């Protein structure tokens, strides 16, 4: 388990995180959600010790993050930040191999090579393994960084917006892969995710943040409610059910600030629904985002 107690963080005089206390369960997929600037990345970076702790305490599997030697920490947690930049004249296989560094310190053994190949395979990257990074699309590169993080083999994976740049098919495949890694390998994944429906469909545990504060934590069913999400994102949000999980809906045109949409080719007023139409529409046309 990762335990966070009384965590606060400032940059200059600005409070970025205020008194966060949370437990991230082991062997589960945890989603960090919340609006831009909520402090999700800062929290993840503090857990991964990419930022120095100012106030509060974080332990990972009972180890105090502030006091644990870096080598031990690297074998416990792998963190993928939002803007990872590595020299582009590097081949994808070499990038993924960096993930093994904490294990071999420059002298890879057969087990390290095998782990790299397994990571390339796990993220469907074997056909691209010999390409240079600047010959990859944004989404392929993103999957490469994920494979590097996975290859590290640490029981905890902390991922900041891993769905960035991924199309719907690859995003779904990644979530399925992460859920499988959690289920079959017993690893623990903590990920920042903006698209709440990925949290709704795949997360075991959700942490909602806003303005540097923890707003709610718990299973998707208890956190992803209409009231909480509408307040979290300052926008009207409906929550339906799909496959026994919450399904978050927020694309109703008639919700959008109460303003009628201007659509090309449709005269102003041409879309104005009759009162009776609205009822029918509400019942029939909920659209997932
Ligand atoms: N280096 C910095 N200097 C000043 N303020 C910063 C710095 N880094 C982050 N902040 C501020 O800290 C707050 C939290 O940022 P953080 O990146 O943790 O939020 P987030 O929830 O991950 O946001 P997003 O969803 O937009 O990525 C924001 O208000 C941001 O402007």
TrEMBL record:
Belongs to the ABC transporter superfamily. GO terms for molecular function: ATP binding; ATP hydrolysis activity. GO terms for biological process: iron ion transport. It is found in: Cell membrane. Residues 279-289 have a biased composition (Basic and acidic residues). Residues 264-289 are annotated as: Disordered. Its main location: membrane. It comes from the Bacteria. The keyword Nucleotide-binding applies. Pfam families: ABC_tran (PF00005). This is ATP-binding cassette domain-containing protein. PROSITE patterns: ABC_TRANSPORTER_2. It comes from Paracoccus suum. It is a peripheral membrane protein. Residues 2-236 form the ABC transporter domain. One of its GO terms (cellular component) is plasma membrane. InterPro entries: AAA+_ATPase, ABC_transporter-like_ATP-bd, P-loop_NTPase, Siderophore_ABC-ATPase. The keyword Chloroplast does not apply. Keywords: ATP-binding, Cell membrane, Ion transport, Iron, Iron transport, Membrane, Nucleotide-binding, Transport.
């Amino acid at each position: 388990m990762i335990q966070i107690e009384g965590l606060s963080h400032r940059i200059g005089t600005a409070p970025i995180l205020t008194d966060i206390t949370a437990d991230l369960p082991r062997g589960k997929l945890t989603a960090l959600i919340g609006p831009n600037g909520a402090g999700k990345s800062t929290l993840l970076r503090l857990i991964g010790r990419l930022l120095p702790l100012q106030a509060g305490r974080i332990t990972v599997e009972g180890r105090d993050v502030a006091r644990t030697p870096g080598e031990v920490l690297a074998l416990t947690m792998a963190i993928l930040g939002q803007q990872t930049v590595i020299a582009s004249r590097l081949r994808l296989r070499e990038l993924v191999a960096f993930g093994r560094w904490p294990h071999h310190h420059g002298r890879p053994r057969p087990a390290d090579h095998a782990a790299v190949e397994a990571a390339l395979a796990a993220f469907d990257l074997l056909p691209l393994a010999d390409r240079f990074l600047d010959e990859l699309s944004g989404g392929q590169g993103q999957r490469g960084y994920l494979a590097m993080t996975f290859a590290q083999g640490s029981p905890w994976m902390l991922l900041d917006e891993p769905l960035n740049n991924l199309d719907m098919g690859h995003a779904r495949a990644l979530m399925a892969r992460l859920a499988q890694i959690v289920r079959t390998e017993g690893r623990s994944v903590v990920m920042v995710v903006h698209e709440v429906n990925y949290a709704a469909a795949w997360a075991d545990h959700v942490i909602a943040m806003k303005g540097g504060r923890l707003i709610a934590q718990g299973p998707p069913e208890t956190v992803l409610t209409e009231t909480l999400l509408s307040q979290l994102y300052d926008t009207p949000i409906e929550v339906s059910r799909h496959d026994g999980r919450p399904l978050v809906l927020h694309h109703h045109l008639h919700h959008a600030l109460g303003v009628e949409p201007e659509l090309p080719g449709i005269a102003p007023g041409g879309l104005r629904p009759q009162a009776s139409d609205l009822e029918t529409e509400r019942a029939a046309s909920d659209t997932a985002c």
